[in-house]
Design goal:
alpha/beta, binds zinc ion, 6 strands, Collagenase (Catalytic Domain), 3-stranded mixed β-sheet
Length: 163
């Protein structure tokens, strides 16, 4: 949370605030898989957030969407809401790298809400991650193309967050 609160404002020039805990009700848990329905979780976040803000949940849980074994995160741009699922990001690494992974996935999901799709540059934070190896390979930075797209929407990504 501390890393997100300090890095996201610098990367996206956004005012980022912690607003509180959200407990996930059992209706959004798929008991047979032991995983949360990512889509339903994001809808809860959307319901909880204030109208003029983007809502993002750091869920201490594993999430999935039908058709995929798991997701590290999910954004629903129309709802301006997203969730990053922490369970798998914590695997096979130390704390410092775990925190880096979380920041990358938060920037990735916010990038989707701000209009970016997946990027083919495997170093770009907007590249799709199938595994924690993919997350580790990408940087917590936007490629110049993605940064330009953000610039067109009025978000000036500083040089330190551009590859
Ligand atoms: Zn994505
Ligand atoms: Zn990119």
């Amino acid at each position: 949370m501390e890393a997100v609160l300090s890095q996201v404002p610098r990367a996206l020039g956004a005012d980022v605030r912690y607003v509180g805990l959200l407990s996930l009700p059992s209706e959004v848990l798929d008991e047979s898989r032991g995983q949360y329905l990512a889509d339903s979780v994001v809808r809860l976040v959307a319901y909880r957030k204030s109208v003029d803000s983007i809502g993002l949940l750091l869920a201490d849980a594993d999430g999935y969407i039908p058709g995929l074994n798991f997701v590290f995160g999910l954004a629903i741009p129309e709802l301006r809401a997203a969730s990053v699922f922490l369970r798998r990001l914590r695997l096979w690494t130390d704390r410092a790298n775990y925190v880096r992974r979380v920041v990358k996935e938060v920037l990735h999901e916010l990038g989707h809400i701000l209009g970016l799709g997946h990027c083919r540059n495997s170093l770009c934070v907007m590249s799709f991650s199938n595994s924690v190896l993919d997350v580790d390979r990408k940087l917590s930075k936007f490629c110049s193309r993605c940064a330009q797209k953000l610039a067109r929407t009025g978000i000036a990504v500083p040089a330190e967050y551009i590859i």
